[in-house]
Specification:
319 residues, globular, 11 helices, 11 strands, NAD(P)-bd_dom_sf, Lipid_A_modif_metabolic_enz
């Protein structure tokens, strides 16, 4: 049965994939965006440019019926945040803003909200075994703290209001249109830049954007998802060196990976003030995504190889 779904941040990297997947299923999609354009064909855009969704309930059009919400819009993780109080800024958007969306949607008749959190709500690394939903969260930065606080605030709100809450925590998301570190890695590989990644054996979970979108869409309707928290991955973890080699193959570029000892990379990070970036590069961060498979019978529809192929094809056509 088709439904009406509100997608916040519908014109973003993940939002576009989610909107496309919903439409393929036959759902009507309204994209709640700050700036018009870019949400994709067939998405009805609702432009609200108030900070942190202030006044959303008053602005809600009477004609907008909403069965469920996928809440993607967020103040995203920034390595060099320039605001004086980053945690307050993250809380305003990621906690207060999320609660405003939930309350406005509930008043408009929504029965479920799928909140796209982040594995950073739990921590920055895994120590020898994948992180499961049962592990005690210990976020280490303002972004992760705000995402965990938003999860807990939404669960409380759901308990009070009857709105069904589903939490999804992805790791690094990649795919056509990817930005930030993943794009920088592809740029370097495509240009044949030698990279000091040859000795990095630690594995990191990833999720292809279309796999994540498929899981989120499942979570809007499956009755078994209500009240659950899910880690979503491609189901196969690569080391950074394996990822770089796979991307080089897909980009038809040489893999120039220099085997620099991990200890030297750590030292370089300390000397250059970039320890956080280096730790993210060389540290293990694996997620156990078996819970969504066992609870919902959901499995990623695309392999890592397919995801990297699609991403490389997009890169080659646009760069």
């Amino acid at each position: 049965m088709s439904q009406n779904v509100l997608v916040t941040g519908a014109n973003g990297f993940v939002g576009k994939a989610v909107s496309r997947t919903l439409q393929q299923r036959g759902d009507a999609v309204t994209g709640l965006v700050r700036r018009p354009g870019g949400s994709g064909e067939g998405v009805h855009e609702w432009v609200v440019d108030h900070d942190d969704f202030q006044g959303l309930d008053f602005a809600w059009p009477e004609s907008l019926h909403c069965d469920s919400v996928i809440h993607l819009a967020a103040r995203v993780h920034l390595l060099n945040d320039t605001v004086s109080d980053p945690l307050a800024a993250y809380r305003s958007t990621n906690v207060t803003g999320a609660l405003r969306v939930a309350a406005a949607a509930r008043r408009a008749g929504a029965r479920r909200l799928v909140f796209v959190s982040s594995i950073k709500a739990v921590g920055e690394g895994s120590a020898g075994r994948p992180i499961s939903e049962a592990d005690e969260p210990a976020p280490t930065d303002p972004y992760g703290i705000s995402k965990l606080e938003a999860e807990r605030a939404l669960i409380d709100y759901g308990r009070e209001s009857g709105l069904e809450i589903v939490i999804v925590r992805p790791p690094l998301v990649y795919g056509p249109g990817v930005r930030a570190n993943f794009l920088q890695l592809m740029n370097a590989i495509a240009k044949g830049v030698p990279l000091p990644l040859g000795s990095i054996a630690a594995r990191r979970s990833l999720v292809f954007v279309d796999n994540l979108a498929d899981a989120l869409v499942h979570c809007t309707t499956d009755p078994r998802a209500a009240g659950e928290t899910f880690h979503v991955t491609d189901g196969r973890d690569l080391s950074v060196s394996e990822l770089a080699r796979a991307l080089a193959t897909q980009l038809l570029a040489p893999a120039r990976l220099i085997p620099v000892p991990v200890g030297l990379l750590r030292l370089a990070g300390r000397l250059t003030g970039r320890s956080a970036q280096i730790d993210r590069l060389i540290g293990e961060l694996r997620l156990d995504s078996s819970h969504i498979c066992e609870r919902l019978g959901w499995y990623p529809p695309h392999t890592v190889e397919h995801g990297l192929l699609e991403t490389a094809a997009w890169y080659r056509s646009t760069h």
